[in-house]
Amino acid sequence: MIGASPGAIGTAVAQSHLRGVLSFCNAPLMNAMEAYVQFKPGLITADGDITDDGTKKFLRNYIGELHAFIVRELTLPPRKA
User: Fold this and answer.
1) 28: closest CA among 80, 72, 81?
2) How far is residue 41 CA from its own chain's centroid?
3) Domain-by-domain residue ranges, the chain?
4) What pLDDT, in 10s, does the model give residues 19-62?
5) pLDDT at residue 16 greater than cutoff 90
6) What integer pLDDT is reported at residue 81 of this predicted model?
7) Which residue has the higher pLDDT, 7 or 61?
8) Cβ atoms within 10 A of the Cβ of 11, count?
9) How far apart are alpha carbons 79 and 13 in whole angstroms?
10) What are phi and psi of 20, to 5 degrees?
11) φ, ψ for residue 37, nearest 5 deg
12) Beta-ladder partners of 38
C-alpha cells in the first residue's frame, strides 16, 4: 500500500484501515511494505517526474519490492480452501 498526503503520515490511518479490510478478505499483502509520501508542491512535475532524489530512490526501491512480491505470489501454488 502506498499513499500521499500533505502531512508527514496523513495516509497512515487510511492504510491501516485498508490493511484490516484486505486481511479480512484473505487478500495477499506485502508483510511490512507500507509507504507514506509527504506530498509537497513541486514534488511531481506535470510530466510525472519526481524532483526529490530521496523520494525518487525510495519509490524505486518500493516498486522493486512490489515487483518481487508479485512474482512470488504468481509462482506460489494456489491456496486450498
Assistant:
1) 72
2) 21
3) 2-75
4) 889 989 988 888 777 788 888 899 999 999 999 999 999 999 99
5) no
6) 67
7) 61
8) 21
9) 30
10) -65, -45
11) -115, 125
12) 5
